[in-house]
Amino acid sequence: MPEITLVEVESAVNPSVAVIWLHGLGADGSDFEAMVPELGLADSPAVRFIFPNAPYRPVTCNGGYVMRAWYDIISLEPNSRKIDEAGLLESREIVRRLIEREQERGIPSHRIFLAGFSQGGAVAYLSALTHPEPLAGVIALSTYIPEARLITENLSGSNQQIPLFVAHGTSDDVVSIGLGQQAIEILHRCGLSPEWRTYDMPHSVCSEEIADLGTWLSTRIMALGHVF
């Protein structure tokens, strides 16, 4: 398994909560770093944001061009994706290593959120919903579930009630809103209750979404309480 480099940002000293945030295809760990102060978490317990860099790999749907990717995408259809399942599972193992790293640094699993944008969100979904220990929540932005059976057949009892913030742009021409809605249907079939929000935007983030996410995340963090 490749060594992973990452970017870390702490909202204040002595963090007791962690957010592991996975970027999208072709981006890197610095992609969402600037969003941290915009989330408005100043009154929450301190949070450590971990932004890992995906490994470099050829991406078939982009003509085999080598870029940072959590898994290879073989073909793109309006309402489906053909992907390299082995790469997806490898990236889940990377996330599990990052969770273990935070536990070793004193943050228990139930205070760790998984977040992801686009391809990173697909990895966050799979990693969280099949993780054997309880996690704090999932943030899934402009994303999809490429292999539903990997979740439905391996759903973790520890995370069947996990909070989910799911957001999508109504004019997304990269990951269609139909793919986002398919993910919501899969989550419902698993007995989960995601908070589903849509925004008038393409395949990106917007200020209203960031504000809503900040409110959701702050509420969830405050519910976890302080660690003394």
Number of strands: 11
Low-confidence stretches: none
The class by helix and strand makeup works out as: alpha/beta
Task: State the helical fraction.
Answer: 25-40%
Q: What is the N-to-C order of secondary-structure elements (H for helix, E for strand)?
A: EEEEEEEHEHEHEHEH
Q: Roughly how many Å is the radius of gyration?
A: 16 Å
Order the strands across the largest sheet as they lie in space: 1-3-2-8-9-10-11
Give the biggest beta sheet.
7 strands, mixed
Question: Whole-number average pLDDT?
Answer: 95
The number of helices is 5
Tell me the name of the CATH class.
Alpha Beta
Quote the distance from N terminus to C terminus: 36 Å
Fill in the keyword field for this structure:
228 residues, Rossmann fold, seven-stranded mixed sheet, 29% helix, globular, LYPA1-2/EST-like, AB_hydrolase_fold
List the helices and strands and how they pair.
Elements: E1 6-10, E2 17-22, E3 47-52, E4 56-59, E5 65-68, E6 73-77, E7 80-83, H1 85-104, E8 112-117, H2 119-129, E9 137-141, H3 148-152, E10 164-169, H4 177-189, E11 195-199, H5 207-224
Parallel strand pairs: 2-3, 2-8, 8-9, 9-10, 10-11
Antiparallel strand pairs: 1-3, 4-5, 6-7
Helix pairs in contact: 1-2
Pfam families: Abhydrolase_2
Family: Belongs to the AB hydrolase superfamily. AB hydrolase 2 family.
GO molecular function, one term: hydrolase activity
